[in-house]
Structure prediction request, 117 residues.
Amino acid sequence: IQLVESGGGLVQPGGSLTLTCRGSGFEGSGFTFSDFAMRWYRQTPGKGREFVAHISGDGAKTNYGEFVKDRFTFSRDNAKNVAYLQMNNLEPDDAAVYYCNAGTIYWGRGAQVTVSP
Prediction:
């Protein structure tokens, strides 16, 4: 099972980005994408990994880190094996490498988000 993040990049303060986490390799694993709760974490140099958001396997429940303050929306499309993190009103402190996680076990390699004028 593999996770690949995409959609990172450079954005100005106040701008928006959508990160995508695509899962693959479920065939033969005995699991489907919907079996896994998904999470996003982020990390910057000198700081530990910080929880960003969580979504249940069926997409019905979400919760977010306190710093999100209603700016981010986590969603998923289980038919496509994809999860999305819509990030609005980005601030310089949001700059980090964002990692996708499935079931606390599987991790992507990360997507860089840079917020700068």
User: Anything to note?
Assistant: The first strand starts at residue 2 and ends at 6. The chain is about 0% helix and 50% strand. The radius of gyration is 14 Å.
